[in-house]
Design goal:
The chain has 17 helices and 22 strands. With 500 residues, it is of the alpha/beta class. Bound molecules: nicotinamide-adenine-dinucleotide.
């Protein structure tokens, strides 16, 4: 059985751990590899290498760091199909979806190649006579990334390229459910010329994460994953005086106004709700119909009923399987709960079968109408192809409903009214807002920031803002003498104190 290696101090090493986790093809249950839970000793080796390498890496010329990212982006493009193929195998995404996963990551690497302009400091001359103040942006040290299963290319690439371009060293702990894609990403990073030790890859679960959370030399932790785990990582990391950003779960709403383009609403809802098997933190899981827009619900149901999951080799498949049998069971249990709670299940994807793949974790498209806020299916992030609808009378009612939800990752409004769109973007308490766009994920030169329960930490994210997360600003105030200056001259009311 193929064992996923660790990457420590620039070497791919086979772990000595006896605790391993199976990596399974979710369409067949075939075990395709085993991922080891790194031993305490191996974790320490990774930490030591990251710590030692930082001493040298932080002083490497900034263009040398940037050029690695340029080469890396080119290599990733060359290997995009191959990486997407790995994602299809271990996560079951459709080919198109897997290609998108890699592409969104490549865009972050391209962005990281612009690191010099993003690390520029500030300068003001003559804050007092002959005294200038200027700031530098400096790397923090050892940074850590803990990533989820649902975007095994994009999310690791949100993290290590920018952090390393800033001059940090990085320890990546990818999801144990699909570690083969991150492994390939790191091989290509090495091929792009990344020096030994700037990036380490360790595998495991809570035990390995806990070592990183308590390690003194770790300065910053980026986490993306579920709410409970992310809150634990945020609390434990900050208790240990680390900088932490935790991107958490979601429940994203789309508001449908009666003046919206009906065909656009129907087409977009299908892809945004059940696409990627609903395993997207930006999936639209609830549509809120304002007034007469609810009359479109039957047509939406018809359209949803026409899509089906399938194997990635089937070009007609709209989406793939759920990641594990346990995830499928949980989704089906929630569907049952929704029925018991009185929601109207107009489309039930439980017990779905796909010809030729009897063991896949399939859940068909599922739709509930007449959902209310007290229902468990509304309160929980289902993370499956389950779409809920709710009806309200006015846009104000829709805004108040959504603002009462504990999450705030993404939202969208479909309308032809500029007034309604402007009001919505202004009043809604959600981090990413789409106007006639169902899944408004910004490109890396903007920040990606969930609000409320979808994020814990300072407002830093994967794009330009992430540079602030991975760096510290050093501000210098300097007095410049010349041979003729009167050295006893007053430096100015504030400066004289500072400079004494
Ligand atoms: P998860 O929380 O189960 O796992 C994420 C990572 O945490 C993995 O590397 C895992 O090994 C580790 N982990 C798991 N349990 C742990 C524990 N007890 N202690 C320490 N570490 C632990 O998440 P997942 O199921 O892989 O991903 C799906 C979740 O991620 C969804 O909730 C989704 O909304 C969220 N997500 C959020 C965003 C965002 O940007 N907000 C993006 C993608 C996914």
């Amino acid at each position: 059985m193929k064992q996923v290696p660790l990457f420590i101090n620039g070497e791919w090493v086979s772990s000595k751990s006896t605790r391993v986790i199976d990596v399974t093809n979710p369409a067949t249950q075939e075990v395709i590899a085993q991922v080891p839970c790194a031993t305490a000793d191996e974790m320490q080796q990774a930490i030591t290498s990251a710590k030692e390498t930082f001493k040298v890496w932080k002083d490497k010329p900034i263009m040398e760091r940037a050029r690695i990212m340029m080469r890396y982006a080119a290599l990733l493009k060359e290997h995009q199909e191959e990486i997407a193929g790995i994602i299809c195998e271990e996560l079951g995404k459709t080919h198109e979806d897997a290609m998108g996963d890699v592409w969104r990551g490549i865009e972050v690497v391209e962005h990281a190649a612009n690191i010099p302009s993003m690390m520029m400091g500030e300068t003001v001359e003559n804050v007092a006579t002959s005294i200038d103040t200027y700031s530098y942006t400096q790397p923090l040290g050892v940074c850590v990334g803990i990533t989820p299963f649902n975007f095994p290319a994009m999310i690791p690439l949100w993290m290590f390229p920018l952090s390393i371009a800033c001059g940090n060293t990085f320890i990546l702990k990818p999801s144990e459910q699909d570690p083969l894609c991150p492994t390939r990403l790191v091989e290509l990073f090495e091929e792009a010329g990344a020096p030994k030790g700037v990036l380490q890859v360790v595998h495991g679960d809570k035990e390995q994460v806990d070592i990183l959370l308590h390690e003194e030399s770790v300065k910053a932790i980026s986490f993306v994953g579920s709410v409970g785990v992310g809150q634990y990582i945020y609390k434990t990391g900050t208790d240990n005086m680390k900088r932490v950003q935790s991107f958490l779960g979601a429940k994203n709403h789309m508001v449908v106004m009666p003046d919206a383009n009906k065909a656009a609403v129907i087409n977009n809802i299908v892809g945004a709700s059940v696409g990627a098997a609903g395993q997207r933190c930006m999936a639209i899981s609830v549509a809120v119909f304002v007034g007469s827009a609810k009359e479109w619900i039957p047509e939406i149901k018809e359209k949803l009923a026409s899509v089906r999951p399938g194997h990635y080799t089937d070009s007609e498949a709209a989406y793939g399987p759920q990641i594990t049998p346990a995830a499928k069971d949980r989704i089906e249990a929630l569907i049952e709960t929704g029925k018991k709670e009185g929601a109207n299940c107009v489309l039930d994807g439980s017990n779905f079968t796909v010809a030729g793949f009897p063991n896949g974790n399939w859940v068909g498209p599922t739709m509930f109408t007449d959902v209310t806020t007290e229902m468990e299916i509304y309160k929980q992030e289902i993370f499956g192809p389950v779409f809920l609808t709710m009806n309200v009378d006015t846009l104000d009612d829709a805004i108040s409903l959504i603002n009462s939800n504990p999450y705030g990752n993404g939202t969208s409004i479909f309308t032809s009214s500029g007034f309604a769109a402007r009001k919505y973007q202004h009043e809604i308490e959600v981090g990413q807002v789409g106007i006639n766009i169902p899944i408004p994920v910004p490109l890396p030169f903007f920040s990606f920031t969930g609000w409320k329960g979808s994020f814990a930490g300072d407002q830093h994210a994967y794009g330009k803002q992430a540079v602030k997360f991975y760096t510290e600003t050093k501000t210098i105030t300097a007095r410049w003498y010349d041979d003729h200056a009167d050295e006893s001259a007053d430096a100015g009311p504030n400066m004289s104190i500072a400079l004494k």
